[in-house]
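Lab notebook, bench 4. Still working through the backlog of constructs that have no structural model yet. Next entry is a single chain of 101 residues. Request: give me the structure tokens for it.
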Amino acid sequence: MIDDTPQNDTDAEVEEISQQLASLREDLSALTKSITGIIGRGGDSIAEELAAGLNDARRQAEHSGRSVEARLERSVLAHPLLAVGLAAAAGVLLGGSMARR
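Model written out:
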């Protein structure tokens, strides 16, 4: 007589995994319905909050950019020869790397 124990164990594991997948599908379906309901009810307020957050981020980025620009301008005015030297060095390095290609 042949023992089918490994095959029976495999069949049981496959059946258990199938049941778990079916349960997972049901859970995902319920979660999707819940999220859809939440978005449907609060979609407008979420969009407004998102737009407000994006506007705040834009304003902060503009302010930071102006601040950096002002500091750079003050530095160049305070050390004009150094600024010209750095710009020339950057140009030589960039030109050298472009010529090698």
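Notes after review: The mean pLDDT is 78. The CA atoms of residues 2 and 72 lie 85 Å apart. Flag for follow-up if needed.
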